[in-house]
Specification:
381 residues; alpha/beta; 2 domains; single chain; Carbamate kinase; 8-stranded mixed beta sheet; 5-stranded mixed beta sheet; Archaeosine Trna-guanine Transglycosylase, Chain: A, domain 4; globular
């Protein structure tokens, strides 16, 4: 088969309901359909990474539960059994088509630590470059609720940014984003193209609607905020639609396409990590006179610009920047620990050493990503 001229790196998120049977077990038939479409993309020269849910759904019946468990220990035990079943089935089907699949289990703390974040990216890059199909899932067996991504929609968007994907495809049991819940309103209309996540778009997103899944349309829109801020086009569609993956990659599928505005500056890898993964360790307050200059990304943030420090942090930590009214301006990486900064803030410039470093450098500032969307709505950890 002749490779596509426009070869892409594509991240595909598969929800639990799209790969499990009605009784909650892994459906080999559904996985075969997914794999066959991924193979078509691979045969056309694309690099593909799967973010696959389904570990808990695949495992809970093997533990004797009749319904999906509610307690954390029971869910984690189910994931321990189900993840093995899931990756075994994926691997077997991919191997039958001549491709090797790999398993990557990841936690939120792997993303919040910059060294581990970069190591994950390097590992995945090697796999993709060698023709392997990485299959990523959150490590549900050891993740704590307060340290989880929350759902694989968010994880898929962060993985797409991690590997600098050309497209994110999110598949579930609904055709895309509607202006109302199509399960309740027969007049609901599919929104085919979105260039901006407005309040109206967010209002159209519903609550979790699948018994086997954890994320509803709202989680998908939140995830797409991240991918759009990273300059990555996204697609929402129904996993049961014939050829949905291949057609979505070629912009021919029925569903909703999300294209970032061309005039929005994409975040580089460092700023993506700061904005979406770092987990701020403290806060710094700046005065009103410096606020607009920070937002326009034209200056470094000097020690003399700081009014107040909150929290304990070390050099190179990420902190939230707020104004004197408490409004979030953005995030940045500090050049000093909180202890060192406390000794130099509110001092006149002549009292500082000539070689004094900026408190936060311009290249490490993440401020308003879109003037229409407040930064605190986009920056999520």
């Amino acid at each position: 088969m002749t490779p596509d001229i426009d070869q892409k790196r594509i991240v595909i998120k598969i929800g639990s309901s799209s790969l499990t049977s009605m009784n909650g077990e892994v459906s080999r038939r559904k996985l075969e359909k997914i794999v066959e479409e991924v193979v078509r993309l691979k045969d056309n020269g694309h690099e593909v990474l799967l973010v696959s849910s389904g570990a808990v759904a695949a495992g809970y019946r093997r533990l004797g539960f009749l319904t999906r468990p509610d307690s954390l220990p029971e869910k984690q035990a189910s994931a321990s059994v189900g993840q093995g079943l899931l990756i075994e089935t994926y691997s077997d089907i991919f191997m039958s088509h001549g491709y090797v699949a790999s398993q990557i289990l990841i936690t939120r703390s792997d993303f919040s630590d910059e060294l581990r974040y970069n190591n994950a990216r390097n590992t995945i890059n090697v796999l993709l470059e060698r023709g392997i199909v990485p299959i990523v899932n959150e490590n549900d067996t050891i993740s704590m609720d307060f340290l989880k991504f929350g759902d694989n929609d968010t994880l898929s968007a962060k993985v797409a940014g991690l590997v600098q994907a050309d497209q994110l495809i999110i598949l579930s049991d609904i055709e895309g984003l509607y202006d109302a819940d199509p399960r309740k309103d027969e007049n609901a209309t599919l929104i085919r193209e979105v260039n901006e996540i407005t309040p109206a778009i967010e209002a159209a997103a519903g609550d979790p609607g699948s018994a086997n899944g954890t994320g509803g349309m709202k989680s998908k829109i939140d995830a797409i905020k991240i991918s759009m801020a990273s300059g990555i086009p996204s697609f929402l569609g129904n996993a049961t639609t014939p050829n949905i993956i291949f057609d979505a990659a070629h912009k021919e599928a029925k569903g909703s396409y999300f294209e970032p505005k061309s005039d929005i500056q994409n975040l580089n890898q460092k700023k993506q990590w700061i904005a979406f993964n770092s987990g701020p360790e403290g806060k710094v307050t700046v005065n009103h006179t410096i606020r607009e200059a920070i937002i326009s990304d034209k200056i470094n943030l000097a020690p003399t610009d700081l009014q107040h420090i909150e929290g304990r942090f070390e050099k190179d930590a990420v902190v939230t920047i707020i104004d004197v009214d408490g409004e979030v301006i953005g995030l940045g990486v500090v050049n000093y620990s909180s202890e060192a900064l406390s000794k130099i803030i509110n001092k006149p410039e002549w009292a500082l050493e000539d070689n004094q470093l900026p408190a936060i450098e311009n290249k490490h500032l993440v401020c308003h990503l879109d003037t229409e969307v407040p930064v605190n709505q986009l920056i999520t950890t």
